[in-house]
Amino acid sequence: MSATRSAVKPAAAARRPNPMSTFVWNGTDKRGKVMKGEQEAKNANALRAELRRQGITPRVVKAKGKPLFGAAGKTITPLEIAVFSRQLATMMKSGVPIVSSLEIVANGHKNQRMAKMLNTIRSDIESGSSLYEALSKHPVQFDELYRNLVKAGETAGVLETVLDTIATYKENIEALKGKIKKAMFYPAMVVAVALIVSAILLVFVVPQFETVFQSFGADLPAFTKLIIRMSDFMVAYWWMVLFAVVGAGVAFIMAKKRSVAFSRFLDRAILKLPVIGQIMHNSAIARFSRTLGVTFRAGVPLVEALDIVAGATGNSLYEDAVRNIRDDVSVGYSVNMSMKQVNIFPHMVVQMTAIGEEAGALDTMLFKVAEFYEQEVNNAVDALSSLLEPLIMVFLGVIVGGMVIAMYLPIFKLGAVVG
């Protein structure tokens, strides 16, 4: 028995594939032209043999060094996943096998973390896994929606078409997210800059004026006294203010991530804000419509599609509503009837959905709804930017200009007395 076991172990070890390493090389071709590049191989000798087979005389072949910082590569972004999906779909439509397609995309990727992940996926497929199974090992980069669409595409034999649809979907969703971030980021940055400038004035500039005022020996205006007191507090307790601001920011982020109740409260509160709230409503409807349209067109069963779509709306209020729709549809109700019951979707969306169901073109109607509301978001963000510009100028004028006026009031008063 022991002899049999010892015989099996070497055989199993022999079948186990050797890990591939990346090497950089340079050499000369038959014309004497210097060539260089990088390539994966089992070892340096195997790469030298491969280069000679290609007519290249290798001079240097060495393992590719890892950078001291950022060796793992930067974070994989959703846009990179969208580009990967488009590249894979294009090559598969051109007749390139999926394993070769993955190798080509991985070798051409600048993000080392992305390249490593694609090589892992390629290895899994070479070992007999489906693309769905290989992607399931990377749930952070490929969410449930992505994986289910790929599974549906593989089952129906239209994987390249589904990948192309996924790429378009992710590009549209990322563009929509970018618009929302733009609407939020600009005013937040202006407020942050105004507060930083105010803090600098209070800590470094106002004390200089205070020294000058003390030499006057005259009574200062109430507004100037208020600014001086604020300056004295900032100079004495700036560390406490900084700690409070940073602590509040960290506490807010942690509460949003860990407290479901707090996260839900924020989702509902933001929908009630003027202008911003309407943008978030339209964004959630656009994401719901486009995601449901994509999953339905890919052949995912409607109840399962609604379950996936719920988490893609980006707001807990809409997530709860979509789960209620899923429950109603699972017992036989139509989608448009279920949408009426949750009482959160506009009348136009419900009617377009009803028309799509009656005509057997639900996905087409949902895409039209998504396009309409995405355009509404674009228009609202542009209008918000135009509205915010004068308001921000007024805000900066009141904050920074107010402090400047407070500092010069005593000087004006002294000039009037002297005059």
UniProtKB/TrEMBL annotation:
Its main location: membrane. Signal peptide: none annotated. Residues 84-207, 288-410 form the Type II secretion system protein GspF domain. It is a multi-pass membrane protein. InterPro entries: GspF/PilC, T2SS_GspF/T4SS_PilC_CS, T2SS_GspF_dom, T2SS_GspF_sf. The chain crosses the membrane at residues 185-206, 236-255, 391-411. Pfam families: T2SSF. GO terms for biological process: protein secretion by the type II secretion system. Keywords: Cell inner membrane, Cell membrane, Membrane, Transmembrane, Transmembrane helix, Transport. It is found in: Cell inner membrane. Residues 1-20 are annotated as: Disordered. GO terms for cellular component: plasma membrane. It comes from the Bacteria. Belongs to the GSP F family. This is Type II secretion system F family protein. It comes from Lysobacter soli.
